[in-house]
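Margin note from the TA: students keep mixing up input and output lines. Inputs are the sequences; the output is the structure of the whole complex. Example:
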Amino acid sequence: MAANSKFPSQLVFPSGDKPIVTATDVAREAGVSISTVSRIVNGTARVAKDKRLAVEAAIARMDYRPNLQARSLKLGTSMIIGMLTQDIESPFLARVIRGFEEALVGTGYAPIIVSGHWNQKEEIERVGLLMDRRIDGLVVLYGDLSDSQLLEISRRQPVVATGRRLEGEHIRTLQLDHEQGGYIAASHLLGLGHRRIAHISGPPLHTDATERYAGFVRAHREYGVEVDRDIVFQGDFLEHGGVLAMNRLLDCGKNFTAVFASNDQSAMGAHLVMYRRGIRVPDDVSLMGFDDIPAAAYLTPPLTTVRQPFFEIGLYLAQSLLAMLGHDLGELTVPSMELVIRESVKRC
Amino acid sequence: MAANSKFPSQLVFPSGDKPIVTATDVAREAGVSISTVSRIVNGTARVAKDKRLAVEAAIARMDYRPNLQARSLKLGTSMIIGMLTQDIESPFLARVIRGFEEALVGTGYAPIIVSGHWNQKEEIERVGLLMDRRIDGLVVLYGDLSDSQLLEISRRQPVVATGRRLEGEHIRTLQLDHEQGGYIAASHLLGLGHRRIAHISGPPLHTDATERYAGFVRAHREYGVEVDRDIVFQGDFLEHGGVLAMNRLLDCGKNFTAVFASNDQSAMGAHLVMYRRGIRVPDDVSLMGFDDIPAAAYLTPPLTTVRQPFFEIGLYLAQSLLAMLGHDLGELTVPSMELVIRESVKRC
DNA sequence: ATGAAAGCGCTAACAG
DNA sequence: CTGTTAGCGCTTTCAT
């Protein structure tokens, strides 16, 4: 069997020393036609037992693996899903990706991830590259692409996006209720007796951030307490923005008993500033975050926050996309936010 | 020009409503042959100005984008690089990926990332999937693949791997000097007068971890102080392992003035335990980490640690791989570790 | 049940 | 300078 030790001349050694074997090679080795090989590999039709055995033996012996690119070209489907994320280092985006990835296991689809770095031009370019590879679907995790750009993109392949609400035939969006999240956070503080609550906001154009603030305002209204705009300072959803805002807050001379940071990363920055200035959390001031990133549980004190179900968001996105691709996965449950009480907030 | 409003019948609408246009369509539209289109798109040869203009106009008008899969099939190169990571949520792996990604920008290569979750079986399967897509190169970020498996894989396409040392024609490895890193950490503590230094180790089979410990031991030897094995406890490189180890350490009754955690995540766990038990860092005990993950700078107090240049590691890996793929990028500098002094360690 | 042949979209000889 | 043609590796009619 190992008798034909000389390889057919057309076998190539692309960059390694191991020949790359094609279905044609397997067919020759097994003494059948290439169509038979294909049928066996894909289980597309019945094949006589002896041939099947011969082919399977050849496949194993030669270590044949079908070329997915060729198959894709023929089938008109790449089995790859493009993911546009903003920053692969972001703790919460990473968790969404992880959930998405998890849902894809076993489906044959593989994600290819590109980063846009919150830069519209870059995002467009990267998505273009993805589309050049004929992705079967695209998931857009936040970012600065306009709604109409997204709609246009969805004319090529199904799109699912987070952080916006959008209607379209080949597009699905997931937008959690951030207003409600902000409301939950503020209510918790208000319910514990806090009446002067400072806020570190997010990027002014980021709707997730502005909605959280809106919920913060609504909670105040319900409690009949006025929000003092003098103690809301702008952050940028990053740690450093949190330190800047917290410093300004402390320097403005106004008093307050709690601060609601628009996300955990801002809260971490604020926390550090208070540590530096000898302000104890939560004894001197309570601190509340938003997101529940992995590090939140290991701050000292562990951070009270509103949990966004990132992993489940990833799962949900994958399911929505798969559904548009014709894979039926039954009911989809929309994840919701929930208060995570730890130790950075105390009764006022 | 928009006169021919009826599309050629063979145009298909895969899952969107926008026709997918091929080079053939462009050729027809511009009144030239398909090879001319190819030549213009790739800049492969001189083409008469009028035809070039006509083709470019057609491309713009029809919004043509070459099908990379087809090109790959023809060229025998996919322009995709596979990355096997262990956990996309790991703060340090994410940074390596980011560096890698950065180095790839503009090269035409795109990474596709899969996770192995520190599970050999899973790793093999994912790498197989990657190879089915005929990746042009593979980068292996740590993991449980054996050296011989890696060598075998490198017979198909160039491989670059971290966390081990390995020789092979189509394989390059990057292994930082963790022994030296451990030495740096321990020396810093010893130099500040600490004589009883506890250690939270990493996974016992993880060579990075064992080497760090070896460096820790060497530093002690040089200072002529004995390491007390009773105050080294095993962790797992994760936060929770850090809390478990720290609790055991505190409960064992032995005294110590500093703890060297084998990585920052372990240090975070240990830090939380001390916070809980009212032990002040660094006043009561000094704490030293390893890695310098993003969160390290925002612990309270900010964590003194040994920085691993993850971003640069990513860059380096990309360069090595690109070099094997025939792209000359000049000198490669091997990044080294360095002490990052913050506030979690003080003189004893 | 199986083989021959066409063709997915593209590039690269090879002729003109 | 430009068009014709032969595949890249695969799946899938269409005959047999």
